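Technical annex, item 7. During the second reporting period the consortium partners agreed on a shared format for inverse folding records so that results from different sites could be compared directly. Each record opens with the tokenized structure and is followed by the designed sequence. A conforming record, contributed by the partner at site C, is shown below for reference.
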């Protein structure tokens, strides 16, 4: 009888040695070891490197307490952090201990944040996380928990793959989700990459921790060091064991910087709406002068606004609530309080600037999607400086992060105040899906400052069927006269006149602009303009301009965009020379005014733009990301690219046109002529008709063709009534006036009700 307590149902076989993938039993048999100690012997049996390492260390030190610094431990920890997502490592003796510590870290993390009740771990039913009391109840397997009650509480469970149940199980007490990346005891079930990505996003959204148990599947067993690496995510906590020791008992917990176990604090932030203060400062950490031995001074910061509920509270009430909060957090006991003192400090954190909430929303849009970004302190800068300057610097940092880290990601926070309209109306014309493409004949600078020529172009735009003609309105001095390098204008036009001088020469006065607006309205065409400055905007507003265009060069000019949007008229924004953060900021600026009438135009600011650079698919991306009406500002030559944009979803086309491409001016050579503008508008209407969806089924235009060309069943001989139909009696041919060929098998062996003749189509009346 064995003296070993029967905790395992052991096989009646034992081994005397192992080598590589093979085991040798006491009776001399050789076995191929598929088990390898249940995923423990990652390098096989008796690996010479492991033998050497264990023997070498055993001759020096067998054990030393963790109360002392252990260089070998530090070396292994550093190697693990360099090769993985982790910033810190804690070592144990087994996988069960590692998962146990992972649970403890998650609970301790929220306790340190002032949320001691946020302590429950959400796990998969019938998973396996070890054989300690806590881990077997984390697994929730009946076989494992039977006989070990009372239950260790603190765990909730959901079924594998049940995403809806998972989300419902998350409460304000949930601290973490803990799952095996590849399940073991519960059946070899792999959590797909898209699910792991979803878990990461869900944990970020709910502000809880993600624990991925890789005790069994980690350390190279999946092909990568960790199985979760295929999903390209970063968990918060990962327990490992088994393979890391290659048979020697060792476990480890890897954690990121966020969940480093708390030590001593200079200050502690409290994220709990039920506790009145938001920050605790330990004054001893800064200076012990004037503080009696054995005592500590705690400074509690309570934020309020003039006249709010906190501001109206009495001193005694504020002090009592503060003491209650400290007791609830477990920081003090009531007997610890020696004395209290309340200071009312006015205007400690004044409003940064009007509209800062929009910039804050923009910052959160970017930073919330960067999993490895950690910020702390006063805008992450340990200096006392002008708060507005620091805020501006942080906004620039966000822009930089966006450009370098996110690319064209569409993971953006939509405005919570207002959503853009999916249909925009300009001068009685509705723009959006299901409506005619709004075609803007862009006069631009092609009038060369000549009012008569501008009127001629308005005439042409009207004759061509364009929806609108557009001008550009600006005051002189729009561009610095000192700018003289690398201008597309001077590259295209043989002149020594600078771009600034040229613009000044072709600008219209207020009276000239009014004359052109009145002329266009008399002709019956919508006319509007692009303002390049606030003075021009006010001029156009006095002319009752029905809509406003923002050029690509002004997409970063948020003061102008806000001023334009505040007029509560449709705003069209070109997105050339911009990244996603620029477009987001411009969009937010419009929506912040309550103006829903927004149109975004995909634009490539190249003059002319090669078709290979048109990047038309961005039209669909703009629509998906910003959920607004989209169009295309086309700088290619000809009209084919513009027409292609309509086919993929553009609801607006802006196209430069001219009366003569040989005239001076920066935009002449890529502009279209009147006949091309006519072709654009007529072709647009044809394409719109082609895009109308009628669903499945034979369309009216197909009826005649279908009747003449589709197939049906015909008799290929004269046959008498009572004849049993066989395959040789029938053939399939046009026209489609009889029974469809799909009924052929049903017709076979049916008895004819009447005489039929050759080439007569089979009908139901013939057989039933």
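Designed sequence (site C submission):
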């Amino acid at each position: 009888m064995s003296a070993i307590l029967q905790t395992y149902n052991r096989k009646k076989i034992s081994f005397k040695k192992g080598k590589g993938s093979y085991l040798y039993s006491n009776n001399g048999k050789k076995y191929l070891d598929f088990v390898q100690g249940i995923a423990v012997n990652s390098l096989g049996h008796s690996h010479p490197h492991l033998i050497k390492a264990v023997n070498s260390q055993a001759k020096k030190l067998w054990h030393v307490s963790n109360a002392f610094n252990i260089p070998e431990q530090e070396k292994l920890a550093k190697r693990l952090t360099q090769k993985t997502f982790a910033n810190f490592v804690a070592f144990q003796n087994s996988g069960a201990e590692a998962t146990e510590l992972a649970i403890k870290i998650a609970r301790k993390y929220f306790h340190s944040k002032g949320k001691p009740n946020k302590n429950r771990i959400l796990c998969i039913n019938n998973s396996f996380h070890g054989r300690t009391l806590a881990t077997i109840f984390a697994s929730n397997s009946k076989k494992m928990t039977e006989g070990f009650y009372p239950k260790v509480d603190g765990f909730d469970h959901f079924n594998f793959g049940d995403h809806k149940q998972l989300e419902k199980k998350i409460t304000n007490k949930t601290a973490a989700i803990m799952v095996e990346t590849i399940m073991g005891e519960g059946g070899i079930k792999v959590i797909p990459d898209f699910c792991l990505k979803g878990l990461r996003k869900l944990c970020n959204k709910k502000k809880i921790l993600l624990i991925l148990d890789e005790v069994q599947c980690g350390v190279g067993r999946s092909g990568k060091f960790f199985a979760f690496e295929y999903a390209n995510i970063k968990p918060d906590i990962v327990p490992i064991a088994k393979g890391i020791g290659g048979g020697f008992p060792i476990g480890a917990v890897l954690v990121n910087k966020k969940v480093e176990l708390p030590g001593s604090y200079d200050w502690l932030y409290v994220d709990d709406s039920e506790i009145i203060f938001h920050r605790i400062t330990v004054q001893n950490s800064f200076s012990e002068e004037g503080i009696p031995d054995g005592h500590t001074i705690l400074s509690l910061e309570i934020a309020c606004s003039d006249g709010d509920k906190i501001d109206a509270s009495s001193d005694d009430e504020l002090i009592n609530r503060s003491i209650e909060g400290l007791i609830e957090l477990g920081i003090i006991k009531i007997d610890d309080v020696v004395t209290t003192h309340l200071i009312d400090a006015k205007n400690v954190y004044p409003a940064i600037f009007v509209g800062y909430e929009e910039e804050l929303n923009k910052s959160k849009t970017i930073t919330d999607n960067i999993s490895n970004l950690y910020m702390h302190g006063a805008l992450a800068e340990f200096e006392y400086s002008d708060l507005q300057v620091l805020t501006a610097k942080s906004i620039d940092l966000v822009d930089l992060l966006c450009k370098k880290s996110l690319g064209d990601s569409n993971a953006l926070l939509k405005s919570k105040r207002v959503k853009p309209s999916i249909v925009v109306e300009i001068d009685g014309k509705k723009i959006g899906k299901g409506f005619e493409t709004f075609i803007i004949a862009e006069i631009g600078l092609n009038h060369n400052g000549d009012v008569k020529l501008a009127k001629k172009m308005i005439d042409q735009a009207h004759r061509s069927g364009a929806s609108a003609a557009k001008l550009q309105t600006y005051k002189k001095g729009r561009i610095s006269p000192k700018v003289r390098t690398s201008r597309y204008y001077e590259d295209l036009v043989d002149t020594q006149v600078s771009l600034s001088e040229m613009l000044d020469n072709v600008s219209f006065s207020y009276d000239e602009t009014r004359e052109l607006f009145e002329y266009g309205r008399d002709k019956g065409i919508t006319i509007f303009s692009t303002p390049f400055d606030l003075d021009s905007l006010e001029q156009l507003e006095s002319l009752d301009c029905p809509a406003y265009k923002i050029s690509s060069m002004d997409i970063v000019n948020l003061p102008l965009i806000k001023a334009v949007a505040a007029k509560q008229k449709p705003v069209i924004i070109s997105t050339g020379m911009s990244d996603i953060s620029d477009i987001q900021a411009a969009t937010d600026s419009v929506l912040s005014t309550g103006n829903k009438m927004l149109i975004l135009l995909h634009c490539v600011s190249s003059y002319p733009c090669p078709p290979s650079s048109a990047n038309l698919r961005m039209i669909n991306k703009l629509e998906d990301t910003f959920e607004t009406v989209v169009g295309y500002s086309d700088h290619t030559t000809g009209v084919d690219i513009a027409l292609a944009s309509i086919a993929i979803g553009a609801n607006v086309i802006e196209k430069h046109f001219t009366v003569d491409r040989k005239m001076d001016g920066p935009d002449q050579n890529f502009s279209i002529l009147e006949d091309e503008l006519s072709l654009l508008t007529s072709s647009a209407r044809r394409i719109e008709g082609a895009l109308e969806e009628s669903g499945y089924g034979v369309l009216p235009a197909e009826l005649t063709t279908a009747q003449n060309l589709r197939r049906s069943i015909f008799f290929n001989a004269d046959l008498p009534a009572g004849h049993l139909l066989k395959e040789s009696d029938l053939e399939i041919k046009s026209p489609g006036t009889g029974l469809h060929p799909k009924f052929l098998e049903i017709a076979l062996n049916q008895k004819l009700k009447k005489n039929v003749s050759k080439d007569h189509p089979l009908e139901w009346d013939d057989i039933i």
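The first strand starts at residue 15 and ends at 19. The first helix runs from residue 36 to 39. All partners now use this format for quarterly exchanges.
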